[in-house]
Write a structure and sequence with these properties.
Structural class: mainly alpha
Low-confidence stretches: none
Shape: globular
Distance between the termini: 41 Å
Mean pLDDT: 85
Number of helices: 15
Strand content: under 5%
Radius of gyration: 25 Å
Length: about 375
């Protein structure tokens, strides 16, 4: 029984779930403490409102409609988390996902509004734009030994301002926001909107995101190509001597990561739920939230589906915090605390495994000492 329990505790999937839940609870607790310090009067109600999000509504119609909005925003977050974890499996930290997401916004919206292209063509443009930025980072890393974090950060800002410049051509004359999408550029819903109180923004985007998550899992876990990518991540030199194209693997990993982030932008903006502001001075949070979603999901493509939904649920729930008791920024602060702590899943798993290892070591030492004590009398009688 004890051995079976120990094997269960060593299960990687179970450890990921345990570590994720622990980080979530810790984030909520710290958020609650922050609210108590600012204004204890409404702290408990505010933290409940944040965690409830759309469940705080009493009418079923409102619950379904707001659930639909959360799912619409979850789709791009799934793709951004896939972008992060795919590159991480190859030993790369794709912090440039935010810029790749921006590039996807630029080409998808420009293709839709300025060129009048259909939604699927605009989505392919978004994928291509993200892949191009990923390719630049990959080439700099593979052939110039430029750290992908440095090149990614630089490209994030370049992509942001290029997006602002390009989309200025298709913005409203009296506002910084881009024009509405033509009907041909909006992704089809296939009747899904009826499940969410006729929420017109619910489209096949979520289905595409889930299918891509499963595809990424198959590529990484059930495919020779994925094995070679991960082998390159573990030890680039060993992969080279084994005959693997290690430089090509680095480039292709960042190309795929960029394509996933760019696809996420297309899946979000081609629903028509939001317009881009051409006066934006910071890259979208979606790319950075993808980092937390990837680690909260245990760096598992399927786990990222659920972690992305939770993070988006918390982010949207922050809007329900009472602004009469707290400043309007407090909801973003609490959400940021929870999201930040979600990134400590791997550390929590490491600490948990260390505790198990120390316990096993103590048990081995105790058993060895007991065996030695049992042998000593036998040795004495023999003399």
């Amino acid at each position: 029984m004890k051995t079976r329990l120990r094997k269960l505790l060593k299960n990687d999937g179970l450890q990921s779930v345990f570590a994720s839940l622990l980080c979530i609870l810790l984030g909520l607790f710290i958020g609650y403490i922050v609210l108590l310090c600012i204004n204890p009067e409404g702290a408990w109600k505010s933290i409940l409102d944040l965690t409830k999000n759309f469940l705080g509504y009493t009418k079923k119609a409102l619950i379904l409609k707001n659930l639909g909005n959360t799912l619409v925003k979850t789709a791009p977050l799934i793709l951004c988390s896939l972008s992060i974890l795919f590159c991480y499996k190859v030993g790369l930290f794709n912090i440039g996902a935010a810029g790749q997401y921006c590039a996807g916004i630029a080409l998808s919206l420009y293709g839709a509004i300025a060129l009048g292209l259909p939604w699927w063509t605009c989505l392919l443009l978004a994928v291509a734009a993200g892949a191009l930025l990923g390719c630049i980072s990959g080439l700099l890393k593979a052939y110039c030994n430029v750290n992908e974090v440095i090149s990614g950060i630089m490209l994030n800002w370049i992509a942001l301002y290029c997006t602002n410049v390009l989309l200025t051509a298709v913005k409203e004359p009296t506002s910084p926001y881009t024009k509405g999408l033509p009907k041909t550029a909006i992704m089809p819903s296939l009747g899904l909107e009826k499940l969410f109180n006729n929420n017109k923004y619910v489209t096949i985007a979520l289905l595409i995101a889930v299918l891509l998550a499963v595809l990424v899992w198959v590529v990484l876990e059930k495919n020779r190509f994925g094995y070679e990518l991960k082998a390159t991540g573990f030890n680039k030199n060993a992969a080279k001597y084994a005959g693997m194209p290690e430089k090509w693997n680095i480039v292709i990993a960042l190309v795929i990561g960029g394509a996933l982030a760019g696809c996420g932008a297309g899946l979000f903006y081609l629903t028509g739920i939001e317009q881009w502001s051409c006066s934006s001075s910071s890259v979208p949070n979606m790319g950075f939230n993808g980092i937390a979603a990837a680690f909260l999901g245990g760096l598992n493509p399927v786990g990222s589906i659920f972690s992305s939904f939770f993070i988006q649920h918390i982010t949207d729930g922050g809007m329900h915090v009472d602004t009469n008791l707290y400043s309007s920024e407090i909801s973003q602060l609490i959400s940021a605390i929870i999201i930040y702590l979600c990134g400590f899943v791997l550390f929590t798993k490491y600490a948990f495994n260390r505790i198990l290892q120390r316990k096993e070591e103590k048990e081995r030492q105790a058993k060895a000492a007991a065996d030695d004590a049992a042998k000593k009398p036998e040795g004495g009688d023999a003399k």
